[in-house]
Amino acid sequence: MKPFLLLTTRPEDDVASAEAASFQRFSELDHADLQWIRLEREDAPRIRAEEISGIYLGGSPFTVSDPVESKSAQQIHAEKALTEVLDQVMEQDIPFLGACYGIGVLGTHAGATIDRTHGEPLGAVPITLTEAGREDPVIVEAGLPEVFTGLVGHKEAVTALPLHATVLATGEQCPVQMFRVGTRQYATQFHPEMDVPAVMERARAYRDHGYFDPGEMEDIFALLGRRTADLPPHLLRAFATVHARGR
User: Fold this and answer.
1) Are 104 and 159 spatial neighbours (Cβ–Cβ below 8 Å)?
2) Share in percent of the chain as helix, strand, coil (round to 5)
3) Cα–Cα distance, 77 to 218 (Å, whole number)
4) Fewer CB within 10 Å of terminal CB in the chain, N or C?
5) pTM for this prediction
6) Angle 116-122-125 from CA coordinates, rounded to 5°
7) Which tens digit of pLDDT belongs to each residue from 77-105?
8) Matching CATH number, 4-243, of 3.40.50.300, 3.40.50.2020, 1.10.3720.10, 3.40.50.880
């Protein structure tokens, strides 16, 4: 199989490593078949569609809709690199799946309105597939039911999608939980790369980043500990299964 690329933008080494491990675990790809690139410190790779199977993009503490003057040099570097990657993705029709931060990145590239209107605090929420979602090949391969539980925690979200984008899943507070542009370029607002223990570990690392009141963290964890969100990670393996290409 030709490898998949995993692109991440997390500045913290321990958090970035944990995220990469989650992608590897749930995609069921080995190290040779999931090549990791950290775009907060590396330049955008030159991509040839015939040499890879597809691309995953992890989450991030970065928020694309923040004012440019408030963004760090690392964030500006990462966003520039991701724009260059998505230019290549769309030009060559390369399979792409972005998790959480992917909504802002792919949405901005596609011309969506991304802002803080539909942010959601850390939690487990019901996600509902649209008619298009129920027919999408990756979602069908993942075996997701019409309604499932997804893990969320984000400051920004899609407020309006361009006409050429297709909503695949919706939520009660956040109307665009998953969409597709092009033929096989996806983004999810919920986290398909984490289960409940993983999202609590991530939350501890970012307890002071404004995703929730730090004083309420243990109460939030108590609620999360009574929930399961084991279905969304099936998307990572399904994406690999549908788009894997022979060597």
Assistant:
1) no
2) 40, 25, 40
3) 35
4) C
5) 0.97
6) 95
7) 999 999 999 999 999 999 999 999 999 99
8) 3.40.50.880
